[in-house]
Design a protein that fits this description.
By secondary structure, the protein is α/β, with parallel strands linked by helices. It is 27% helix and 24% strand.
Length: 374
């Protein structure tokens, strides 16, 4: 955590917030939390939101207060920050390799309910040794590659073989199947996403069948994201959902096709970057203080929500070039609200969330997991 103070104080007007700053519209944020609960109610699904999007214990606790069984993290250090902030149930949705990380994970499992993924028997054996050394118990889920082409063991018998290996190791319990089709989240049409998740579901069914033939009961199948969670919820095989970005949303999710007809259209844009105009070199051009170090551009440039009509063209380290339409006033010191292209890595660049309602700062939350990538 940085020693820099927050860019605002409770009660400040948004116009007085120092920049660059990460803003959270509390009305939109709470709408998103409540909407997720509403649309999944009655489905039989457990909700385990992914905290890699926000890295913020107050948000994780708000999700759990609304019924989430716990949260996901992507790294051990993220999980540590969440547990330090009061979260008591974390699934690390990643493979953990290396003695220092394994020892930390095993120690964390004595403070909270901790589970993790594996896709290789050697990793399982190392997890067992770490758990035994610390006297803890860790639930381990088999990560199945269901089409994302990243981590994961092949579905069917390879997944079952790894599950049997987990179940046989001291200090470990078999926690179920992790089946996340990350590539499907930003497929632009509903038909593309439906096809991708249908293939994933078939692979999960093959894996469950192979495990049950081995005499293993599969406690849970977990996965899904903001772009597809309604599909996994209706699949008949998933029991737990892991959407993360829904709390914030971003410009890339807004590009998914038919936003009013699928999961993306349910949620409001709650996250913005506040920028200040620092230069007006011409009538058609402005420069703001939000550059590459203040937002992630892996999914494209940010969208400008306020003032509508201006366009963020390109970024350098500390500067953002903005196209100003004819007749638009944008004097030095003007504040712009930007929608990040990709919320998760943008949040990781900030220490604080400046939470506002009705134009005033209501709360300031630390992004405790900022920079937690080991």
């Amino acid at each position: 955590m940085s020693t820099l103070p927050p860019p605002a104080r409770i009660g400040d007007a948004i116009a007085d917030v120092d920049t660059p700053a990460l803003l959270l519209d509390l009305d939109a944020f709470e709408h998103n939390l409540d909407t997720m609960v509403r649309v999944t109610a009655g489905s039989g699904m457990r909700l385990r939101p992914h905290a890699k999007s926000h890295k913020c214990p107050p948000i994780a606790l708000a999700q759990m207060q609304r019924g989430a069984v716990g949260v996901c993290s992507q790294k051990v250090s993220e999980a540590e920050a969440l547990v330090d902030g009061g979260v008591r149930n974390v699934l690390v949705t990643n493979e953990v390799v290396g003695a220092p990380k394994l020892a930390r994970l095993a120690r964390l499992a004595k403070r909270a309910e901790v589970s993790v993924l594996a896709d290789h028997p050697d990793a399982v054996t190392a997890l067992s040794h770490a758990a035994q050394a610390e006297g803890s118990t860790i639930a381990v889920l088999v990560e199945v590659d269901v089409g994302a082409g990243r981590c994961g063991v092949a579905p069917g018998e390879p997944a079952a073989a790894l599950a049997r290996h987990i179940a046989a190791q001291p200090g470990l319990t078999f926690g179920g199947i992790h089946a996340y089709q990350g590539g499907a989240q930003h497929m632009r049409t509903p038909a593309e996403r439906e096809a991708a998740i249908a293939k994933a579901v078939a692979m999960v069914k093959d894996s469950i069948a192979a495990m049950e033939q081995s005499g293993l009961k599969v406690p849970i199948v977990t996965g899904a994201g903001t772009g597809t969670f309604l599909l996994e919820a209706g699949s008949g095989v998933y029991g737990e959902l892991q959407p993360g970005s829904y709390v914030f949303m971003d410009a890339d999710y807004a590009r998914n096709g038919d936003p009013a007809g699928d999961s993306v259209g349910l949620f409001r844009q709650s996250l913005h970057i506040l920028a200040t105009v620092m230069s007006r070199p011409s009538a058609s051009r402005a420069v703001v203080d939000v550059g590459l170090k203040a937002h992630s551009v892996d999914s494209g440039m940010p969208r400008i929500d306020e003032p509508a009509g201006a366009e963020y063209l390109r970024a350098s380290d500390e500067h953002g070039l903005v196209s100003v339409p004819d007749g638009m006033e944008m004097p030095l010191g003007s504040k712009l609200k930007l929608v990040p292209g990709h919320c998760d890595p943008t949040v990781n660049l900030y220490d604080w969330l400046v939470c506002h309602r009705h134009g005033r700062v209501e709360s300031i939350w630390p992004i405790a997991g900022r920079g937690a990538f080991y």
